[in-house]
Amino acid sequence: MIAYIKGKLMAIQDEAIIVETTGGIGYELLCPNPFYYQHQLEEEVMIQTYHHVREDAQLLYGFKNEDEKYLFTKLISVSGIGPKGALGIMSAVDIPSFVTAVENEDEKFLTQFPGVGKKTARQIILDLKGKLTSSFSITPTEAEDIQRTDEAALTEAKEALRALGYTEKELTSIMPALRKENLTNSDEIVRKGLALLLQS
Question: Which positions fall inside the Helix-hairpin-helix DNA-binding motif class domain (predicted)?
Answer without folding.
Answer: 73-92, 108-127
